[in-house]
Amino acid sequence: MAPRSYQAHIHIDRRKAEKFLNDLATNENFYKRVQADPFSVLREKGIDLSPMPPGKITLPPQAEIRKFVKTVLPKAKTLTGGGPFGFLVSFVVMSGLPHPGP
Q: Which residues pair with 87 in a beta bridge?
């Protein structure tokens, strides 16, 4: 079976991406909402992945996301534009997809 290709359209500015990551790290209700329906929330926030990757998302624990936000966001702020932040949002959420075995 040939590998499936995906496209990501990221239309989120830096401020909104930072808020998304901070909310994911600290807001239990938002975290649960993303866990339950990640692709709808991403699309609502300006990130569209198509086609939707298969499998259930299991987000990293909020403590791990807080650690990621605390260590990565300050370094990412030296980058220009919103794109890198949109990729960070996608990375955090997509890290919860099941990974194929070896």
A: none
